[in-house]
Amino acid sequence: MKQFHVAIDGPAGSGKSTISGLIAKKLNWTHIDTGAMYRAVTLWALNNKIDLNNESEYRFLEKINISYENDQIFLNGINVSIDIRSEEVTNNVSLVSSFPYVRKKMVDLQKKAAENISVVMDGRDIGTVVLPNADLKIFLTANVEERAKRRYAENVQKGKVDHIDNVINDIIVRDEKDSTRKEAPLKKAKDAFELDTTYMTIDEVVNKIILMIEKKENL
Ligand code: DC
């Protein structure tokens, strides 16, 4: 069978990563969470105390290695899947991912990772920039309260207690930054199918997208 590329984009907390991971697992395809890659860059930048506002300091990307395998993110071979979810990383990742140099490096890596395999890739610019010829493009949305509720539940599960209002605020701020930046902003591709998941369960979303994939495969 021919390789199949699914692009899943959407705002923070829309469930992209969870849903993409489950679809890939069911189909035995590869999942790539591109947000985790930008978070890994941010983590390295913070740990090494570079000036986050100075684009030329991101040249370190020539020397480090970032890879995403089996839903885990590796930075120079070390699993940093937990560290990239810290508040400090979350608060700075929109800035880091706004630099054209950083984006070019990550987009090249992501395009390469999708070569010759069937993949479900999620992020903000997958349907528009990374995989513009994807076989299926989905733009996942949900209202901000629902997205905050999901993030909040995730945080509680990880033992992180915060006020729901802070989570709502974080999501609003990040959405604003991600969709108004100059370089590859969060945007629905013209040929993407928009799916509002506010009143859907994870299983319902996964099953709906799998049906869409099967339909496309049989064309
Ligand atoms: O999906 P996430 O919340 O883990 O993504 C973290 C940040 O990375 C998000 O605020 C914007 C950025 N990002 C991006 O600019 N392009 C992508 N393809 C994926 C994420």
What would your notes on this structure say?
This protein has 219 residues and is an alpha/beta fold. It has one domain: Rossmann fold. 47% of the residues lie in helices and 16% in strands. A five-stranded parallel β-sheet has the order 2-6-1-7-8, with helices on both faces. Strands 3-4-5 form a three-stranded antiparallel β-sheet, with helices on one face. Helix 1 crosses helix 8, helix 2 (34-47) crosses helix 3 (87-96) and helix 6 (144-157) crosses helix 7 (164-180). The longest helix is centred in the C-terminal third of the chain and has 17 residues, at 164-180. The chain starts with a strand and ends with a helix. The mean pLDDT is 95. Bound molecules: 2'-deoxycytidine-5'-monophosphate.
Write a brief structural summary.
The protein has about 220 residues and is of the alpha/beta class. The protein has eight helices and eight strands. The mean pLDDT is about 95.
The count of domains is 1
What percentage of residues falls in helices of 4 or more residues? 40-55%
β content, as a range? 15-25%
Bound molecules: 2'-deoxycytidine-5'-monophosphate
**If strands are numbered along the chain, what order do they take across the biggest sheet?**
2-6-1-7-8
Question: What separation lies between the terminal Cα atoms?
Answer: 13 Å
Which characteristics define this entry?
binds 2'-deoxycytidine-5'-monophosphate; alpha/beta; 3-stranded antiparallel beta sheet; globular; single chain; 16% strand
